[in-house]
Amino acid sequence: MSDHDEHEHAHALGLPHSHGHIHENQKAVINRLARAIGHLSKVKRMVEEGYDCADVLVQLAAVRSAIDNTGKVILNDHIRHCMVDAVQAGDESAIDDLCAAVEKFLK
User: Fold this and answer.
1) With DSSP H G I counted as helix, E B as strand and the rest as coil, what are the percentages for the chain, rounded to 5?
2) d(CA 72, CA 78)
3) CA distance 42 to 5
4) What are the two backbone dihedrals, phi and then psi, of residue 56, each rounded to the nearest 5 degrees?
5) pTM over 0.85
């Protein structure tokens, strides 16, 4: 089964996460997620140790920024690769799936 067939099969089953291939920016996404996890761990420690609320909020802003920037990398990769493949294959449901995912991401 080719990557293209796996992509179509995954979307048909409602499994958009089962692409069966490595995304171009996978390493960057993993690194960004590790940073976000580090920031979030810091927030937890700060709360446990009774840090000032303003300092905790600043650290939470770093978590939010890290997650938002990670989402942008994933979205860019998805549009440039997965969506191009889906459109070339005539997979209209992939566009609907992307629109729904963007809507949830931007809430």
Assistant:
1) 80, 0, 20
2) 10
3) 43
4) -65, -40
5) no
End-to-end CA distance of the chain: 36
Dist CA 54 CA 104 (whole Å): 28
- Pair 13, 30: CB distance under 8 Å: no
- Cα separations in angstroms, 93 against 5, 67, 77, 100: 15, 26, 18, 11
Spell out the per-residue pLDDT of the chain, length 107, in tens.
444 444 444 444 444 555 556 777 899 999 999 999 999 999 999 999 999 999 999 999 999 999 999 999 999 888 888 888 888 888 888 888 889 989 998 88
Question: What is the domain extent for residue 43?
Answer: 25-106
Q: What is the CATH number of the domain that holds 102?
A: 1.20.58.1000
Whether 9 maps to a domain, the answer reads no
For the chain, the domain total comes to 1
